[in-house]
Amino acid sequence: MNEFNPENFKLREGEYLPLVGIDYPVDDPYKGLVHFRKVRDLKFDESYPFLDDSFAYRIQWCFVNCFVAFGVLFLANKIKFGIKYKGRDVLKRYKKEFSDGLVCVSNHCFPWDAAAICQATRHTFWIPMLSEHFNSRNGWLLRHFGGIPVPDDFGGLRKFNQAFDTIHERKEWILIFPEARNWNFYKPLKPFRKGAFSMAYRYNCPILPVNISYRERKGIYKLFADPKVPLLTLTLGEPIFPDSSKPRKTEVDRLLRESHKRICEMGGIIQNPWPAYWDEE
Length: 281
Prior knowledge:
By secondary structure, the chain is α/β, with parallel strands linked by helices. It is built from 8 helices and 9 strands. A 5-stranded mixed beta sheet has the order 2-8-7-3-6, with helices on both faces. A two-stranded antiparallel ribbon has the order 1-9. A two-stranded parallel sheet has the order 4-5.
C-alpha cells in the first residue's frame, strides 16, 4: 500500500534522530532533493561503454579509488562525520560465501556513503547510478569510481545487463542503493526498488545489508560541521541468501522485504512510516 504514515514512526530507545531542517517529501519517496546542473549531453544507449576495460579507464579508476575513495574521502568521513564501523566480522565469517561476488544494499543518506561502504568493507564496488549524474560536473569522478549509468532505452538496457553479467562472472562486488535517491540524514527507511534483489536472484549471490545511522555531534567534532549535522555509524549486517529454487517473482519480493526489515532493525527503527515497496503504477 502506497502510504506515508508518520504515526507509524517509532525508534528504539536511545536511537538518535537528527533534525537538520530539511523538508523531506511525504508523497514521493523517489523525489530528488539535489539537482545537478547539466554540463554534457551523453546518451546512455547501446553505443555507451557501460563497462570500459581500456587501459586509460583502468588507470583513472585506480587513481579515483586509491587516492579519492580510500584517501581523501576516508579522512573526510573520519574528520567531518566521525564515522564508526560495526559488524566487520561478517566479512571474515562469510569470506567463502562472498568470494564469488555479492550485492550490497544500503540506505542512501549522505553524499559520501558509497565511499564509506568501500572503506568499511575494504573493497571496491560497481554501482548502478541514475544517468543524470553522469552529465553533471561530477560525471567523470562517478564513472571512474565504478558508477554505471542506468540506461535511457532498451538497447542500452541490454548492454547494461551484459556489463553486470561480466562483473558477476569476474566475481566482483556490486553496490546498490534501493531507495534510489539520497536524502541527507534522513532517518526513516524509504521504499525499495526491485533492481538489487532481481540482480541477486539472477546471479544467486548473497545480499549484504548495510545501515548508516546517526549520533549526536559532540566535542571536537563541533569544529568541523554545523552542530545539527550528525555523526555517523555504519553497520554491516548478516547476509541474506536467495533461494534459486523458488519462483523469481516470489523470491525477489521476499529478498526486498527481508532486506528492508533487516536494515530497519539495524538502524533501531521499530516502526517505519514508509512501506517496504512502493508501487509506482
